[in-house]
Design a protein that fits this description.
With 459 residues, the chain is of the alpha/beta class. It has one domain: TIM Barrel (Alpha-Beta Barrel). It is built from 15 helices and twelve strands. The strands form three sheets. It has an eight-stranded parallel barrel, surrounded by six helices. Strands 6-8 form a two-stranded parallel ribbon. Strands 11-12 form a two-stranded antiparallel ribbon. The longest helix is centred in the middle third of the chain and has 25 residues. It is globular. The structure holds beta-D-fucopyranose.
């Protein structure tokens, strides 16, 4: 099995996020989040779905840990819902919310599973959105307060912290395209939001290090390599713009290179570049030393300059055979892109340590949930991406872990429950979890890796 080709020092995990699995949207003093609000805006989420109940992980967390243990997971990436901890975003701490995550962390550690915690996976307290959300600098200040509260409480036990998940998605899909919460269409606000997300990451890293001695802290970026649809100069230019917009706008400042000049010029020519957002010291804060970079990889993006911007996202033309597409517009299956990405991040940006914290494929939810779920496409997808991850390690890339997205089927943002990314199926009517064939394949792969390296612990 491919897993046993990986080194002994490696984290095998699966990932989820709070709003996508927890449900219990108003339980035990939790405040409203922007996704609680957004889901009720007409036409924003497919079929009017919401995360109000979802997998109800909030009430099934013990069984879910037992499930993870049965699958030999060595690590579990989950996120903390900010509005459970600080219902108004800042100020009053809801200790019941903290207790939930404290029990979850203890339960994971008891099961021999390493917690990897994301502090922000898109569920901003609505109270902060009412003041402008990430477009305002005060939200970055509130994030520092939230980070302090959480890491003081869990920092003795959690040793892997991620500040933000995919700030490009949070800023641009939330504030410019309007397809994610808070649903705005304002370039200027989106660029400001991106800056404040990055700034709050920079402020949070030293807080994490102070409260959680010996812990690793990093951020998680989405990455979809661009490729030109034709050899025309214009299509190459579109690829460069895509890379600047989705990748370099975040990578460059994080690695001390300031915002990329070509994109600043483009935003200025569009008349949307904010003039007052960068305060003295901000760029130094953003470039704070992180211990690792987390990356989420799903697919590539093929760019054709002739398609207008408004119709152009994700600007993917499917060249792969149809059975090589992921469901729901998630692009074609392109495993070598993972290898190329890891090499670029390490060699171009000197990233000291990398984790793939999301990789996986959606099916369209056609599978029955009662019996065996034969998701051979997911096994093949993961296997082919793991081959590329392993090649990268052989090339000297410091890749230290892999997390499949997702542990279980869940609320897939604007696509609601129409897409299934899980290795475990969920019968939403009963809450029942049904491991798919991919879950058993992953379990057996990890067992083979444990055997090959005589790793002590689980299995
Ligand atoms: C990523 C998100 C994650 C999930 C997957 C499919 O962009 O981080 O929450 O929705 O896509």
């Amino acid at each position: 099995m491919i897993h046993s080709d990986f080194p002994k020092e490696f984290w095998w995990g699966a990932a989820t996020s709070a709003y996508q699995i927890e449900g219990a949207w108003d339980a035990d003093g939790k405040g409203e989040s922007i996704w609680d609000r957004f889901c009720h805006l007409p036409g924003k989420v497919l079929n009017g779905d919401t995360g109000q109940i979802s997998c109800d992980h909030y009430h099934h967390w013990q069984a879910d840990i037992a499930l993870m243990k049965s699958l030999n997971l060595q690590a579990y990436r989950f996120s903390i819902a900010w509005p459970r901890i600080l219902p108004a975003g800042r100020g009053n701490v809801n200790s019941t919310g903290l207790d939930f995550y404290s029990r979850l962390v203890d339960g994971l550690l008891d099961a021999g599973i390493q917690p990897f915690v994301t502090l922000y996976h898109w569920d901003l307290p609505q109270a902060l959105q009412d003041e402008g959300g990430w477009a305002e600098r005060s939200t970055a200040e509130a994030f520092a307060e939230y980070t302090d509260v959480v890491t003081r409480h869990l920092g003795d036990r959690v040793k892997y912290w991620m500040t933000h998940n995919e700030p490009w998605v949070a800023a641009f899909m939330g504030y410019q395209m309007g397809v994610h919460a808070p649903g705005l269409q304002d370039w200027n606000a989106a660029i400001r939001a991106a800056h404040h997300l990055l700034l709050s990451h920079g402020w949070a890293v030293p807080i994490i290090h102070a409260n959680s001695p010996g812990a690793e802290a990093g951020i998680v970026l989405n990455y979809s390599p661009g490729e030109p649809a034709s050899p025309s100069g214009a299509d190459y230019q579109a690829v460069r713009r895509h890379d600047g917009y989705q990748h370099r706008w975040f990578l460059d400042p994080l690695f001390g290179r300031h915002y990329p000049a070509d994109m600043v010029a483009e935003f200025q020519s569009m008349g949307v570049m904010p003039t007052d957002m960068i305060h003295s010291g901000d760029m130094e804060s953003i470039a704070a030393h992180s211990d690792f970079l987390g990356v989420n990889y799903y697919t590539r993006t093929i760019l054709r300059a002739s398609i207008p911007e408004s119709e152009n996202l994700p600007r993917t033309n499917f060249y792969a055979p149809k059975d090589e597409w992921a469901a729901g517009g998630w692009g074609d299956i392109y495993p070598v892109g993972l290898y190329n990405m890891l090499c670029r991040l390490h060699f171009d940006y000197q990233v000291p340590k990398l984790y793939v914290v999301e990789n996986g494929v959606s099916t369209d939810g056609g599978e029955p949930v009662e019996k065996q779920i034969r998701d051979t496409c997911r096994i093949s997808y993961l296997e082919r991406h793991l081959e590329q991850a392993q090649r990268a390690i052989q090339a000297g890339i410091p890749l230290a872990g892999f997390f499949a997205w997702s542990l279980m089927d869940n609320f897939e943002w604007a696509m609601g429950y129409s897409l299934h990314f899980g290795m475990v199926g969920v019968d939403y009517a009963t809450g029942k979890r049904i491991p798919k064939d991919s879950a058993f394949w992953y379990r057996d792969g990890i067992a083979a890796w444990i055997h090959a390296h005589a790793v002590s612990g689980i299995a």
